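Wed. Picked up where I left off yesterday with Exodeoxyribonuclease 7 large subunit. The coffee machine is broken again, so keeping this brief.
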Amino acid sequence: MDNILSVRELTERLRQVVEQRFPYAWVRGEVTNLSRPSSGHVYFSLKEGDALLGCVWFAGRQKTHERFDPLTGEVWEGGPKPSLAHSLENGQEIVCAGRLSVYGPRGAYQMLVDLAQETGRGRWYLAFEELKRSLAAQGFFDQSRKRPIPDSPRRVALITAPTGAAVRDFIRIAADRGLGAGIRIYPTPVQGDDAPPRIVAALEEANRQGWAEVAVLIRGGGSIQDLWAFNDERVARAVFASRLPVLTGVGHEIDHSIADFVADKAAATPSHTAQLLWPERRTYAQRVDDAETALLQAAARRLGYGLRALDGLERTLTLLSPTARLNRQTERLADAVGRLTPALQRLLREREADLSAGLAALMRHGGPNGLEQRRRALDELVPRLDSAGRARLDRAGREAERGRDRLLPLAALRLDRAEHSLERLALRLAGLDPAAPLERGYALVHGRDGRLVRSVDDVAVDENVSLEVRNGSIAARVTGVTPAPSPNPS
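Structure written out below (tokens, as returned):
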């Protein structure tokens, strides 16, 4: 008898089992036994056939001041929407979400309702999930197939209703950030039964024209029914097949459509799409500063290379200069003369000593007559020695002259080559000067935003431009644009 439970114990155990097994549940059924006491709570039952579930929707859980329905994510633009608790009727089919519990005083299980929605909206949700699963299985949402959205595009295909807050906000932000970008609107209804085929046709037309760099599909906020066109399979397949990258901005931040999942990129709101396409103006200024810094650094590197090359050429020219070669030969000759002079002095001293010794011997052996004979012989020897010395010096001078004559042509040839190399380097450095074409009579064309005009696509008729010439600038207006003819295929 120890396992006999009291009613309270059994009820408590049942409550624990129910709450643990069903911590949160979604239930669909028909409203019956509806009661609204003065407390503001709502009591009713959900029935299906002969099955019945009691429900309690406490006033504090009715969310009367929410701007969107937490069950579906539907945004009510007209302000807070009354809770479904105020419009429930017997016989109405609804979907409820909440916790299951056991009410001890009656020994019955019941649902403590958190959210409630009409069954019709429940069918929208089920259809959305079914299509989402189907397209995901076919690879429509694969990240590997998604393309990057162009940064700061110049041409945008905008697919949306031609009036309304969405298109106005997009154009306003584009005007602030787009720096003259072209926007071509493909008008289409964005809600209702005829919206999906019209959206598909507009997207296909934008692809057929091939004018734009990106297609933007936007719609402002609304109920799930209002946004349902963007959950249509036809629209999803058109976005998937688009050759243009597709950027979507449907509803508000909490709204997610099938088109968002298929698109190459989805923005939170229509305004956010424009913010993704074009950065703020200070970002452009930073990009210009970065480009200027990179250009200056590159120019400094090239100039450094040129200066080092010039230094090398200068050193080479110095080594090859005839004057330098002659100076080196002169130094070598002076060095040789410097070495030769002491040797000649030693030789003269030796000869003088020999002569003195000879005179002394002559005086001892020959007397004055012998001395006179020696003097005459010496007088004859001195001219010969002088002639021989002068001949040696003349030969050395002629050798130096011949060496100089050989060096001068070689030095001149090397100097000419160095001058040619220097001229070529000077021409290359001059080619790096952005102002060089202006000196030859050319002009640089700048658009109204200061950018260099490189193509007829960079300007429009009646646009103000600036012509930069050698000694100033000229203001002009574009009166016509004529693209260059395409070459005929041979």
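Quick read: The chain has four domains: 7-127, 149-279, 316-433, 438-477.
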